[in-house]
Amino acid sequence: MKAAAAIGRIRKIRVAAPPLQRFNVLSVVIDPDLLIEGYRLGVFPMATEDDSIEWFSPDPRAILPLETFHVPHALRRVLRRKIFQTTLDRAFPEVIQACANREDTWINREIIESYIRLHELGHAHSVEAWKEGKLAGGLYGVAVGGAFFGESMFHYVTDASKVALVALVEHLRARRFVLLDTQWLTPHLQQFGAIEIPRNHYLRLLRRAVDLPRKFV
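Structure (tokenized):
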């Protein structure tokens, strides 16, 4: 399927009524322009059990408000001890592969290769947490304008992914980003202040955010 045709199908999702919209796109690597347009329109891809790619637009949508981001007290103690060192875009392929290395995963080879390509083009980014020179945890996502779309996180060492999230939020604040999308709400994200909002509200925030002249790096 050509990217333009697929983008046309993505656009229809914006007016669909059901809480979760998805459609199938078969390809070897997802076209970078299709990925970026999907994010601009509020949809994102995931691999299903049969290894095909479907696009999702949850309602409600989870976001992590940057202005009210909360660092739990226990994590504050970890940060003060400076156990971890954080970096940006130092090990993107390793981070996405680590995120995929779990029993129940939506990240298949097509997703990995597609986002590595997006990283090479400067749109997908990673935050790494290191301990004693070894990768201990991290996360990755996509930046479009003033919006960052968090995709997945992992840890080898307790608290490493949480430290990476704190580093991400600090970086987004410094770069004057206005939207941190987390897709779905989980208890893990709730402890940091993540909330759910109606999709229509999310799309209004998204339209404003993606048109801002912001740079992740």
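The chain has two domains: 3-59, 62-210. The first strand starts at residue 24 and ends at 25.
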